[in-house]
Amino acid sequence: MATEQQLLRILIVEDDEDDFILINDYIKHLRAWKCEVKWIYRYDDAIEELANNAYTICFSDYRLGAKNGIDLIKDIQARNCNTPVILLTGKGNYEIDIEATKAGAFDYLIKADLDEDKLERTIRYTLERISNLQKIKDSERKYRNIFEKSKDIVFIAALDTSILTINYAVTDILEISAEESIGKKLTDFFQVTGQFNEFMATLQEDGEVENYEVELLTVNKEIKTCLITASIEADSENRNYMQGIIHDITSLKKAELASLQAEKLAATSRFIRTMAHEVRNPLNNINLSVENLVQQITNEDDRIYLEIIERNGKRINDLITELLQSSRPAEMNLRPVSMIGILTDVVNAVQDRAILRRIKVNFSYSGNDCSINADGPKLEMALLNIVINAIEAVADETGVIEVTAQCKPDQGVINITDNGCGMNPETKARLFEPYFTSKRNGLGLGLATTLTILNAHGAAIEVISQVNSGTTFRLTFKA
């Protein structure tokens, strides 16, 4: 079965009719393709014709009156014409050959040396080059599309980490536009300098880093937990550069932390209920025995010891009750309440304490007030616990507590920030555990109860803290 011949639409731009007839005659004898030839001898007409991108190949004389073939190439490129141009000249000229190549000519032929075989080789070479360039363009377009639409940050940077190219995912993750990112260094986004130094040391030693977990700061100083995979590569001129991907796992980390917290609370609740049952049984026997002994004893000196036992038995029972209440799911009477109203009451409630210690408690909010489903008194108690903890973490006279609220269409966000001593990772990890406290006289039930109340409200809780840099509690409620 005969293969259908490829159709070539060929434009010849030549101001000498004899030269056109000669070239056209060579083309007529080509058997590899079916050719349609059009001749144009005016420069301006050729530009207009080529601007339609309707031709497979263009043969152009180098000299076209006041203009030349290189001018033709530049003019059609300015009009986004991709037709390959092969220049023809009366005699060889090395400088013209170099200039033509730089301008984008696909080939350069001398008319005196032209024959049918040379013309066929030139056309075949040009068609292969067009095909290869098209494949490169398709590949570039495909990978450019992947680059631009990726949900992960994809970047290319110099070895000093100055960003050269970055995709638009940087706006969603680090809250900065791709254009503003160019020229900035990766170190500008690392929250912990030590993490950056370790990352760079590994990259320089091994040439690559895979899934390195870091905390990055957005432009608005929000912490994002990310994984960075990067490598050092070399360009065509053997100059090294860095390329990498930054994957945001903040939501995953929050979900893992919430799941771990829920598991720990469930395990703690089971343990507390079991322990309370086992302790209360013998405690009840002790209390009953003491009551009987108090009624029967006649020696007043012995009565004092029995009263001590009685008081401490009651104290143990009260502690068990408090512990059970902190671990038991809170019963809520949820109804629409004003988030700003609750925060105003909380801030007013701590003002006396703040004045006595000469510290500032500032309250501000953006947007309109928003209504959230909450048990007002219980939520107020939970927020009060957090603010009081913040007050106790700051120094007298220099302490500042910032309480801010932001009402969005679908959620309300509360930030409670202090400039106190902050927490190390170990303390932060155990923050909501019952009976864990760093206070001298504390029981460690305040924040455990707070967590129980906030969980009952379906609030998302995020704690951001560094030693000597203060702490922020960020609470997100569904509006």
Give a nutshell description of this structure.
The chain has 479 residues and is an alpha/beta fold. Helices cover 47% and strands 24% of the residues. It has 15 helices and 19 strands.
Number of helices: 15
Shape: rod-shaped
Q: CATH class of the largest domain, anyone?
A: Alpha Beta
Oligomeric state of the chains in view: single chain
Largest beta-sheet details: 5 strands, parallel
Q: Radius of gyration from the CA trace? A: 39 Å
Corresponding CATH superfamily of the largest domain: Histidine kinase-like ATPase, C-terminal domain
Adjacency order of strands in the biggest sheet: 2-1-3-6-7
Tally of structural domains: 4
CATH-derived architecture of the largest domain: 2-Layer Sandwich
Low-confidence stretches: none
- The end-to-end distance, rounded to whole angstroms, is 72 Å
Number of strands: 19
The CATH topology of the largest domain: Heat Shock Protein 90
**Helical residues, percent:** 40-55%
Structural class label: alpha/beta
Content of β-strand: 15-25%
Mean pLDDT score, rounded? 84
How is the secondary structure organized here?
Layout: E1 7-13, H1 17-28, E2 34-40, H2 43-50, E3 57-61, E4 63-64, E5 67-68, H3 69-78, E6 85-89, H4 94-103, E7 107-110, H5 116-149, E8 153-157, E9 163-166, H6 169-174, H7 178-181, H8 193-206, E10 208-217, E11 223-234, E12 240-248, H9 250-296, H10 300-327, E13 335-338, H11 339-349, H12 351-357, E14 360-366, E15 371-374, H13 376-393, E16 400-407, E17 411-418, H14 425-429, H15 446-456, E18 460-465, E19 471-478
Parallel strand pairs: 1-2, 1-3, 3-6, 6-7, 14-16
Antiparallel strand pairs: 4-5, 8-9, 8-12, 10-11, 11-12, 13-15, 16-17, 17-19, 18-19
